[in-house]
Structures
1.
Amino acid sequence: NAGVTQTPKFQVLKTGQSMTLQCAQDMNHNSMYWYRQDPGMGLRLIYYSASEGTTDKGEVPNGYNVSRLNKREFSLRLESAAPSQTSVYFCASSEVHSVYQPQHFGDGTRLSIL
Amino acid sequence: DQQVKQNSPSLSVQEGRISILNCDYTNSMFDYFLWYKKYPAEGPTFLISISSIKDKNEDGRFTVFLNKSAKHLSLHIVPSQPGDSAVYFCAGYSGAGSYQLTFGKGTKLSVIP
């Protein structure tokens, strides 16, 4: 049972390059999320998709775009990468967008921007 | 402004003893709290949760206590095992329409055999 799968696991970019982080879940969950975790910090929500066809901004959306491609897949795009976006990115999913539904996380994408 | 604070970056406990991880919050709108556990190079995994209408929730070796008047919650692990060594994140939901989780910075627990 794969759960939430993120690709790639590691990536190094140059400032100004673009990149799309991929996320797929096989749990038939309706809601999906993108977080970033900086060193010594908690996770911060970038964007989320409460259901297929909807996306909303989280706490730190600037510099990112998202696409809910279908129920399984939710991608995060950096159009012009900046060193401040160096972080570990986590994708998560939950059955529904509810406080009572725990989120299931992927193993993360470690992104370095030089 | 840090709304969820985990003031102890690390904690070491002997195997078999109790581990107590603390979390304070400032947002009085938080009405649901969760603890996540994270091993290196893995994503966080859900551990236990508590609603603001309760003051205690138990699941096996894990118990979470909530003191609303003090805006404080704690996670107790009894007995602690080496496999419990991980980073523990406290998170709160404000419930203010958006249902977004706010995470603390985490506490790294080391259980010494």
2.
Amino acid sequence: RKEVEQDPGPFNVPEGATVAFNCTYSNSASQSFFWYRQDCRKEPKLLMSVYSSGNEDGRFTAQLNRASQYISLLIRDSKLSDSATYLCVVSEAGGFKTIFGAGTRLFVKA
Amino acid sequence: NAGVTQTPKFQVLKTGQSMTLQCAQDMNHEYMSWYRQDPGMGLRLIHYSVGAGITDQGEVPNGYNVSRSTTEDFPLRLLSAAPSQTSVYFCASSSRGELFFGEGSRLTVL
């Protein structure tokens, strides 16, 4: 079993749609959680950190359920520019040994 | 603002050749890591380092060596290249969770 598993993609949605990505992790000792975004043939970049209390950044909302070892990302009012691969990321204490999920590809269409 | 610099950006090797991928960061980050990314596989951790003189294996360490003699540099050595090592390699550094990536090195082994 992979340490971090994500929804298989791709997701194809129209502009303005709401889309949700899910992720599960297997290491209960994991301490830090993130969503990264990766554009085609580019390096990944941090989208947002994920906290147990949930956090929101504009159209993006991330949630963490430690008991279920589950992470989610919600994108509201999708834009064409949101088309990318979204990577679920989990780190051990101190931010070391960071493991990535395989990613979920999102296509937003006009 | 250099951030994380990887060289070379592109490389073609023959099976059995050795080479070193260079990675340097100017952010004084203690943590550095190497990933490889293959289609449909996401980023897989090869080796990581939590400080100068300290390295450890990630998910897929076989066929690769690393060393960390300074805080700034974290080279990845391929001892005897194999076609299975054809991939895009990313170096990253981190201070407290967020990973900063280089632009990647695209390696082809014939």
